[in-house]
Amino acid sequence: MMASKGEIWVVDLNPQKRRNEVGKVRPAMIVQSDVLNHEGAYPNIIVMPLTTVLIDKAEPLRLRITRRGNLKKDSDLLIGQIRAIDRSRLIEKVETPDVGEMRTVRRFLDEILD
């Protein structure tokens, strides 16, 4: 499966190691560079999970992604839960965020990693 940066995929985040980690099969955004995504030699992919448990005004740790296409519910992108998973955990492509959302993701990542 060829995933690209910014795409939202259904991924399997099980098993969950700790209660504060996100688990389950759920949508997640690919945040890794396409150089690594498309090269094929790198076995992992870096993602940020989404949740339908919405919390207003939780920026920069969350970004609201509105429902559209195959993303059936409004969701919060959990920017503070970024993690690497094996590519075999990718199940299917769901949606692609717009350019403005990707700019905001980058800005929020810069804020929490500064």
Description:
By secondary structure, the chain is α+β, with helices and mostly antiparallel strands. The chain has a single domain (8-113), classed as Roll (SH3 type barrels), CATH 2.30.30.110. 18% of the residues lie in helices and 32% in strands. Strands 1, 2, 3, 4, 5, 6 and 7 form a 7-stranded antiparallel beta sheet that branches.
Short structural summary:
With 114 residues, the protein is α+β, with helices and mostly antiparallel strands. The chain has a single domain, classed as SH3 type barrels (Roll), CATH 2.30.30. Helix content is 18%, strand content 32%.
Topology:
Layout: E1 8-12, E2 25-30, H1 34-39, E3 44-51, E4 62-65, E5 75-78, E6 83-86, E7 90-95, H2 99-113
Antiparallel strand pairs: 1-2, 1-7, 2-3, 3-5, 3-6, 4-5
- According to CATH, the fold-level topology is SH3 type barrels
CATH class: Mainly Beta
- Give me the Rg, rounded: 13 Å
Count of domain modules: 1
Order of helices and strands: EEHEEEEEH
Number of strands: 7
What is the overall pLDDT average? 90
Separation, N- and C-terminal Cα atoms: 33 Å
- The share of residues in extended strands comes to 25-35%
What sort of overall outline do the alpha carbons produce when their principal axes are compared?
Answer: globular
Derived from helix and strand composition plus strand pairing, the structural class reads: alpha+beta
CATH architecture: Roll
* Unreliable sequence segments: none
Number of helices, where a helix is a run of at least 4 consecutive DSSP H or I residues: 2
Largest sheet: 7 strands, antiparallel
Helical residues, percent: 10-25%
